[in-house]
Design goal:
Elements (H helix, E strand, L loop, with lengths): L14 E4 L7 H10 L7 E5 L1 H10 L6 E4 L5 H4 L4 E5 L16 H16 L6 E2 L5 H6 L7 H8 L7 E6 L2 E5 L6 H7 L2 H18 L6 E5 L14 H15 L3 E6 L7 H4 L4 E4 L2 H11 L5 E5 L5 E4 L16 H19 L3
Parallel strand pairs: 1-2, 1-5, 2-4, 3-4, 5-12, 7-10, 8-9, 8-10
Antiparallel strand pairs: 6-7, 6-11, 11-12
Helix pairs in contact: 8-9
Length: 343
């Protein structure tokens, strides 16, 4: 586990991109992102060069690869070739068929990316999608990417997820849990923790001097004065009061069905949502292909495409690179803002 404080990012440092699940669409997305490199900041990928070479042939993508030994070799290579920091797979990857033998390499790719960011050799970490079930079967002890990244960053408090598109930012207070359990586990403390981290990140990573946080209700019509539920009065309002007492500009609870309309979105910088789908549905409705998953509260910047491994189309050439390109751009901009803020 990495516990030392991150060093200042080196001038013109590239982004570190992980391989993701080798049987998924991550490799194809990486190749396509480099082909559209005029739309993305410089990046290197931590992957198996032989796997990527096979993909270029199978998908007929005109990508030249170059193996680098360190992140600082990225800038000299990026214009003419995709820089690859080698991370060898134990078994040849087959599209759509994840192999447990390759799980250590998937994990090593993430560890190397984080180490590069923590040392200042990489501007930020961008992760291609992983397949949780395969990682679990190989003994992976974390619920997902986010918890693993938090451990690598030496965090003692959970980080926070933010979904970002050009028109909206949302933060779910409860994340990967059943709706029934999400309601049971919702508390003022969890709302305060998520909103506090979101407020700090909006200031540091998004250059918003005084963020406006719209807090969603849980129940229809935000509880209708208690007629449709008491969570607003008993949990959400006390959290908002505590946030305001800390100097955070939080307001609500607002009816969830009215919170995401075009006119209302102009009134806030991020919506604090009570559960997973309340946060993800509006973002994906507005920009399904371009939505980005951002992890707040880490000692380094991390973004990811907001989609999965897509085993059903892996190896077909049909993967859409829009979300990965957006994730690369958002990561670079967040890192620049964080550096400017001296964080």
């Amino acid at each position: 586990m990495t516990t030392s404080a991150p060093r200042r990012v080196e001038r013109q440092a590239p982004l570190a991109l992980t391989m993701g699940e080798p049987a998924g669409i991550g490799g194809e997305l990486t190749l396509k992102a480099w082909l559209r490199r005029e739309e993305a900041p410089p990046f290197f990928v931590i992957d198996d060069p032989e796997r990527l070479e096979r993909l270029t042939r199978n998908l007929d993508l005109p990508v030249k690869l170059t193996v680098i030994n360190a992140p600082d070799q990225t800038s000299a290579a990026f214009a003419s070739a995709l820089p690859v920091l080698a991370c060898r797979l134990a078994a040849e990857s087959i599209p759509g068929a994840p192999d447990l033998e390759n799980s250590p390499a998937v994990r090593a790719s993430i560890e190397t990316a984080v180490a590069s960011a923590m040392s200042g050799q990489a501007m930020a970490v961008v992760t291609n999608p992983v397949h949780k079930k395969t990682l679990y079967s190989s003994g992976f002890p974390f619920p997902g990417h986010t918890e693993f990244l938090a451990d690598l960053g030496g965090l003692t408090t959970p980080p926070v997820m933010m979904l970002v598109c050009t028109e909206l930012r949302t933060v779910p207070v409860t994340v990967h849990d059943s709706l029934a359990n999400a309601v049971k586990s919702l508390s003022s403390e969890r709302i305060i923790a998520a909103a506090t981290i979101a407020d700090a990140a909006l200031r540091t990573d998004f250059a918003i001097a005084r963020p406006r946080l719209a807090v969603a209700g849980l129940n229809p019509h935000a509880g209708e004065g208690g007629a449709l539920g008491n969570e607003e009065a008993e949990i959400i309002v006390p959290a908002i009061t505590a946030l305001c007492a800390k100097g955070i500009n939080a307001f609500g609870p607002l009816p969830p069905d009215a919170l995401f309309g075009a006119r209302v979105r102009d009134d806030y910088d991020a919506a604090i949502c009570m559960y997973h789908d309340q946060a993800l549905i509006p973002v994906k409705t507005l920009d399904f292909d371009g939505a980005v998953n951002v992890t707040l509260g880490l000692p380094f910047v991390r973004t990811s495409p907001d989609h999965g491994t897509a085993f059903d189309i892996a190896g077909t050439g049909g993967a859409d690179v829009t979300s990965l390109l957006a994730a690369l751009r958002v990561a670079a901009e967040m890192a620049r803002q964080r550096a400017a803020a001296g964080a």
